[in-house]
């Protein structure tokens, strides 16, 4: 009887040991600032689906959209502190960490999204994914949103129409210079505040791709949207080097595979949304979409292009040249 009790106790101890040896799933928080019905929002949800499918019981992906967890101004600091593991800020928001990514903010640099994609996938674009390494961050890939349009509470056909108006910009000195080049007044503000600033007329205008203008209802508080396609708003998916290296090799490999697939999915969504959200805005009749002529567009190019020279040393001439080459 005593040996039976001993055996049962031993089995119980072994069972307890075995259960404690089963590792708890790694929780990965993915924070972003846009709505779920956007390219980035859809990409984050696809990543959750694929990662949890590939690593059942091993990872638990929590997606926080709409600045619910952190705004873009805080998310990278939070990542370095280990409070969030994934984010995809717009490329304009890395200025504090590296000057090189500001190449993406130069006005009228890329002729279309195919050119942006060629640059990102080419050797210089791929090298830029490592430009944050010295700050403890790893770039896992780029995701598209699309070309930016200019919105305002008055019609903008030529740069002179924007003179003296206040425009919200992301935290990028290139974007500040871009608006100063047309004698407008740029104000750096978080994305989460843009709707209210426009609604209360604390600012007159903003720049955003179609999917942000639609999903955040900016078109309901801006009377006019000028189809300028003057710049790009894309993202870099980032994680902290310390977190990424702490993962077992197989988990890291599967997560990277899931991320690559999710990014490809998000990029498809971005192509579709650029067209469909533009049309939804037109159909809503809440805002007038202005198509400018080639001559009018040239005036914007002439006014804004000197910004390239202003930032050439900071960004790197070779990087700008590689981006120009991607247009060919
Ligand atoms: C985003 O698309 O993530 C936000 C962009 C912005 O701040 O305008």
From TrEMBL:
Coiled coil spans = none
Q: Where is the signal peptide?
A: 1-23
Any single biological process term in GO: transmembrane transport
Any Pfam family matching the protein: DctP
Cellular component (GO) terms are: outer membrane-bounded periplasmic space
UniProt cross-references to NCBIfam families, sorted A to Z: dctP, TRAP_S1
Write down the PANTHER family for this protein, in alphabetical order. Answer: C4-DICARBOXYLATE-BINDING PROTEIN DCTB, PTHR33376
Q: Which family does it belong to?
A: Belongs to the bacterial solute-binding protein 7 family.
Q: What is this protein called?
A: C4-dicarboxylate ABC transporter
Q: Which organism is it from?
A: Oceanospirillum multiglobuliferum
* Lineage of the species this protein comes from: Bacteria, Pseudomonadati, Pseudomonadota, Gammaproteobacteria, Oceanospirillales
């Amino acid at each position: 009887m005593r040996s039976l009790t001993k055996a049962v106790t031993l089995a119980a101890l072994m069972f307890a040991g075995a259960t404690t040896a089963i590792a708890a799933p790694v929780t990965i928080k993915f924070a972003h600032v846009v709505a779920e019905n956007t390219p980035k929002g859809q990409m984050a949800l696809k990543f959750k689906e694929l990662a949890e499918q590939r690593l059942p019981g091993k990872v638990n992906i929590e997606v926080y959209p709409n600045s619910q967890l952190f705004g873009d101004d805080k998310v990278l600091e939070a990542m370095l502190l280990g409070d969030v593991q994934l984010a995809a800020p717009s490329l304009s928001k890395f200025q504090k960490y590296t000057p090189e990514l500001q190449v993406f903010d130069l006005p009228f640099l890329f002729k279309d999204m195919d050119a942006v994609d060629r640059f990102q996938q080419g050797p210089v674009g791929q090298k830029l994914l490592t430009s944050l390494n010295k700050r403890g961050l790893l770039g896992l890939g780029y995701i598209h949103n699309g070309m930016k349009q200019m919105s305002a509470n008055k019609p903008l056909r030529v740069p002179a129409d924007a003179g003296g108006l206040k425009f919200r910009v992301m935290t990028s000195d290139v974007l500040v210079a871009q608006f100063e080049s047309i004698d407008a007044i740029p104000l750096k503000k978080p994305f989460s505040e843009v709707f209210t600033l426009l609604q209360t007329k604390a600012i007159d205008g903003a720049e955003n791709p179609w999917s942000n203008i639609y999903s955040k209802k900016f078109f309901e508080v801006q009377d006019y949207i000028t189809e300028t396609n003057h710049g790009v708003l894309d993202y870099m998916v980032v994680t902290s080097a310390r977190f990424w290296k702490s993962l077992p090799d197989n988990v890291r490999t599967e997560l990277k595979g899931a991320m690559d697939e999710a990014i490809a999915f998000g990029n498809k969504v971005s192509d579709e949304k650029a067209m469909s959200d533009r049309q939804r805005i037109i159909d809503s009749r809440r805002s007038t979409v202005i198509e400018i002529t080639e001559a009018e567009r040239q005036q914007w190019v002439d006014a804004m292009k000197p910004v390239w020279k202003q930032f050439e040393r900071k960004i790197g001439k070779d990087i700008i040249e590689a981006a120009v080459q991607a247009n060919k």
